[in-house]
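Hi R.,

Here's the chain you asked about this morning:
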Amino acid sequence: MTVQWQFKALDTYFFRGAAPFHAGEGGQGGQDSVFPPLMSTLQGAIRYQLALSQGWTPGDDRLPIELGDSDSLGDLRLSGSYLYYDNRLLLPAPLFLLRLHDEAPKRTSYHRLFPGDKVSCDLGQVRLPVIPAGARGSKPMDKYWLSVATMEKVLAGGVPEDDDYTAMVDKPAGCIPVNGVTCSDQLWKSEAKVGIGRESDTRTAMDKNLYAINTVRTKKQVWVVVGVEGIPIEWSQAVRQKNDIVNLGGEGRMAELSIVEDSIKLPVMPELTAVNGKILFTVTLITPGYFGNQGQTQKALKDLKPWINYTCITACVGRAKQIGGWDLKVNRPRPLRSYIPAGSTWFFEANASEASAVAELHGQYIGEKSSNAYGYGQILIGRWEEKI
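And here is the predicted structure, written out as tokens:
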């Protein structure tokens, strides 16, 4: 059974990204915080609390065997991380969605990229995503989130309802409009902070150790949620009985922890209707995906083979994310690896006889198997239509 671990900030968060954070590096703007936090951070906090609940103490050579080691999760399986607002799941907008804001009537409309005619380019004769007529000036929605109901509509081939609110600042803070589309700026804000290093023994300030970071302050109703499976449910119950406040991320920041025995309810997959003996479907990442070495990642960028062995028509793929982490065993950063970002979408065609096999992929994981245990590479299946 899936157990939800729900984290709510008590003040602000700080989650380091891949940018250097050494003296003299990073510029005067300060180190930005990643949000939502990556599983490379959350898995450590979760395993730490689970280990404590089973009698492990910091400094012990090994975690309980069920929780793995520095290179694996053992029996533990994680999903997410997911963003919740007011107990409602929010999902990253697919990268084929576009948003067009018209200042004159103060109205915003939404559009979909779709596979165009074949063109000749550096990739050969391929079909590239094209913008529909009337959508010129639209912008990608890489900083937007969709409610489950709106994502179901998008997966079924539609777009969010147009909205006519004048500007984001005119809406109540953190409010999700009726069309189920919200911007990151409505869910959290960045706050600059300046700090200074201190001597651990005397607690006095250290010379030349001034630093600047940009922390994240979330709205009160925003939660970060991780699905936890693979270990006895009693372990999570033991954590819930002992702790409701935990350390999370850098700077010794604290978060309220709630543990709920409930599954993560993803959007329902639309029906894939056959046309001329073919089904047209999309594969959208809702968590970053890792596909192995450089050659395997380049292959995945083109057609996801061998993970999905169908005919790839085209794709909308975002800029790679560099994800590392900290290796406590050797006390140094882990090597950075390139992940394909959430929201990236591939457009596929398959024989109608493959419809049931495609449907089984909904909510499953693709990419390198070892990364799947951490929740990376989770996908949703949608559908698309040819434009005549």
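One quick note: Confidence is low (pLDDT under 50) at residues 165-170.

Cheers,
M.
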